[in-house]
Protein 1
Amino acid sequence: MASTPEKLVKNAIVRQLKAEGVYYFFPATHGMGRSGVPDIVCCVDGRFVGIECKASNGRVTELQKLELERIRKAGGSALVVTGTEEAKAIGGFIKLIRGSAI
């Protein structure tokens, strides 16, 4: 079965997170879960990070924008990654959080 364009973005991000040894998970959005939360939630050296994944032509919904802003207001990092090329840059973002980037 072929992966969807958004799934390809998620896979590319997960490869970066694994390579950097980052704790991550995909939160449940049904049952007791909450709609609008980012696709991937992770912890980078004690810092909360929410990552919303979109295909190259994807758009963030108003509910997703609200949840990303809530994360930022709470002191976490929240970002939208659009397309596999942006997904490849996650390693650099992690290094920035860790303070090891230029």
Protein 2
Amino acid sequence: MENELAILIGSVAGAVLSLFFKYVPGINVKWDQLKSETKQMFMGLALVLTAAAMYGVACIPAAPEVLVVVSCGGKGLTQVAFALFGALTSNQGVDRITPNAKAVLAARGQ
């Protein structure tokens, strides 16, 4: 059950992050002006840090149980790897299938 929950949380985090930068006014226009490589690097780094935080919280003895979605140890690293894959996949999938906001299209002159 823990593995599925970790994947689900990772997937939701990836999708929410993509939607945030695509639709939040002001941020979306600036985000669209960045090079593709810059956006990919930022998203990848943000999701890796999120996955690392999931594992880090699991290894804190005093962490509230509600925050612990993976185990601390070798099994937890596997769970984090699956969660990261789900996050990266959903992040890029959502980015590809969602239309651009009107403000972004206007900034592009479309």
Protein 3
Amino acid sequence: MTEKNISANNNRVADECRSEVKGKPLGKLNFWLMGAAGAMIILGFLLMLGAPSGDTFNPDIFSTRRIVVGPTIAFIGYIFMGFGIMWRGHCKKGIVPVEKQN
């Protein structure tokens, strides 16, 4: 790489680091993680759905999918949502944010 390309790359990374410090508290990756977590939560609730028992007893209300799998996926989705909100991107080592450059 030429010196011009390296400095342009360093400036781009420094700009990304600076936008983390001020401006938007959540980045693009945070929203992708939260979207995936939301999809997991919806999937968990959809797995818990089923036909109502009605007037007669329906043993399907005690199926493993409705009692174990659905709630587990929804719970993991809620944990993943917290992870997605708190995730912080990391700046590359040796890159100084633009505010600190001379």
